[in-house]
Amino acid sequence: MITRDIRINANAIWNLLSEKGSITIREISELTNFKESLILLALGWLSRENKITFSDRDGVLEVSLKSVLTDIYY
Question: Which phi and psi angles does 65 have, rounded to 5°?
């Protein structure tokens, strides 16, 4: 069950990043109401699939998609 939840959350976060661009984990939490632990698991999933990048903005971790165009499915 939890693997399914992680996958669903990863998909929702991917869509959010596609809309918003680079955002923080706190912003993901505020926009999705997901528990932080499930956000981190979903980000790990997306990271393992090489879909996101992490960057540091003034000491705050930001997440963004690597490339939106490569993930468009027809």
Answer: -75, 145
Sign of CA dihedral 72, 57, 23, 43: positive
The 8-class DSSP code of residue 62 comes to: E
For the segment 32-49, what is each residue's pLDDT rounded down to a tens digit? Answer: 999 999 999 999 999 999
What are the C-alpha distances in Å from 65 to residues 1, 18, 44, 51? 26, 7, 13, 6
Spatial separation of the C-alpha atoms in residues 68 and 61, rounded to whole Å: 20
pTM: 0.84
Structure tokens at 35: 């528990």
